[in-house]
Amino acid sequence: MSLQYHIRCKPGDVAKYVILPGDPGRVPLIASYLDSARKIAENREYVTYTGTWKGIGISVTSTGIGCPAATIAVEELANIGAEVFIRLGTCGGIDPSVHAGDIIVAEAAVRGDGATKEYLPVEYPAMGDHYVIRALLDSARSLGIGVKRGIVWTHDAYYRGTWIGEMPPSKRSVYDPWLEGGVLCVENEVSGIYIVSRVRRKRAGAILLCMGNNLVAEPEAFSQEDYIKGVEKMVKIVLNAVKLMEENKDEYTH
């Protein structure tokens, strides 16, 4: 495969493990934890850095917002050698137990997006790879960082599923079926990453920082400092999870 049309990367530019934030602005922050990280490409919403951590090659590529953009990133990264994808992003809580600052490992996603319907029938579940999810959970535990795990709702219409502050009662019915099913939070990319990874026979997981609960008023505003601290915790979890997978392949592979 030659230079990829959207991400502008070619074979040899990216590592086996790729961290996928949505926000291009988050890429340099994540890459700052890597050794010898260098910027590979920037085009549209796709910014890519590659470096190493503990001697393991790791890339970081932003996906932009939504499943159409995220599926493009995964498709093109898979074309040039990427094997394991870990979304590192944000979400809004919907379960009453999920609050600002909580970190969620997404075991699976409700396929509320439109893009994945062009890949597989809606009856097909958007599941994370068992071993990637397990590595994330084991990593968090070993670092002493508390996380929640469960199902997330991926959808398209941001302002139909996300609310800044407490959502008015008249708008809450959109969450009713997902609350009944124990869904923890809402976001925009996980199902796209999981479905394309399955189709391409790759592996994927996701870890999300809750920016606030959409149904329950938070006692305090979630500050930029809180956000940075949360992202840093997730980066530490992901990097340690990659180390676990790379050093214990018999335990974390099929």
From TrEMBL:
Positions of the Nucleoside phosphorylase domain: 16-242
Keyword Disulfide bond set for record: no
GO cellular component term, pick one: cytosol
Gene Ontology process terms (BP): nucleoside metabolic process
Gene3D superfamilies attached to this UniProt entry: Nucleoside phosphorylase domain
InterPro entries tied to this protein: Nucleoside_phosphorylase_d, Nucleoside_phosphorylase_sf
Enzyme class name: transferase
Pfam families: PNP_UDP_1
EC numbers: 2.4.2.3
Keyword annotations: Glycosyltransferase, Transferase
GO molecular function: uridine phosphorylase activity
CDD domains: UP_EcUdp-like
Protein's name in the database: Uridine phosphorylase
